[in-house]
Design brief:
- The chain contains 5 helices and no strands.
- It is mainly alpha-helical and about 150 residues long.
- The radius of gyration is 18 Å and the shape is elongated.
Length: about 150
C-alpha cells in the first residue's frame, strides 16, 4: 500500500511540475513579465497534487516529493521561457542541445533575489500543504447545529 501511495504521488508530482511550469511560462510569455507569485503557486499545486494522489495521507517522503516537484516545476517554467525567447519567440527546437546548453550557461543569471524568495515560498508551501490537507481529512466532521 505504501509503494502505491508513493508511486501515485510521483505521478501527481510530475503532472503538477509540468502543468505548473507550462502555465507559468505561458503567462510570462504573453505578458512579457514573470510573476513570482506563480512560482509560489507551483509549490501549492505540487503540494496539493501529491497529497491528492496519495489519498490525503502524508509522510516525510510525500513532503519531499512535493518539494522536488515544486522546484522542478519552477525550473521547467524558466526553461520554457528561455527556450521560447532563445528560439526567436517560437517553441520550435525547444529541446535542442543548443537551447539546453544556453540554459545551463545562463542559469545563475535567471534567478534574481525575488525569484529566490518565491522559490523559498514555493518550497515551504509544498512541504507544509500535504500535512495540512492530511490533518484536515482526518479531522472529525462535526454536524451543523440548528440555530
Amino acid at each position: 500500500m505504501e509503494q502505491n501511495k508513493i508511486g501515485m504521488s510521483v505521478i501527481g508530482a510530475l503532472l503538477a511540475a509540468i502543468v505548473g511550469g507550462a502555465v507559468w511560462a505561458l503567462i510570462a510569455i504573453t505578458t512579457e513579465y514573470e510573476l513570482g507569485i506563480i512560482a509560489w503557486a507551483i509549490g501549492g499545486l505540487a503540494g496539493y497534487a501529491v497529497s491528492y494522489f496519495a489519498g490525503k495521507r502524508t509522510s516525510v517522503t510525500i513532503q519531499l516529493i512535493a518539494v522536488i516537484a515544486s522546484v522542478l516545476g519552477i525550473l521547467l517554467g524558466k526553461y520554457f521561457i528561455v527556450a521560447y525567447f532563445y528560439n526567436y519567440e517560437s517553441f520550435n527546437g525547444m529541446f535542442s542541445s543548443e537551447v539546453f546548453s544556453f540554459f545551463k550557461e545562463t542559469f545563475v543569471e535567471l534567478f534574481e533575489i525575488m525569484d529566490l524568495v518565491f522559490v523559498a515560498f514555493a518550497v515551504v508551501t509544498a512541504w507544509q500543504l500535504p500535512n495540512k490537507l492530511a490533518n484536515k481529512a482526518e479531522a472529525p466532521q462535526q454536524p451543523l447545529s440548528p440555530q
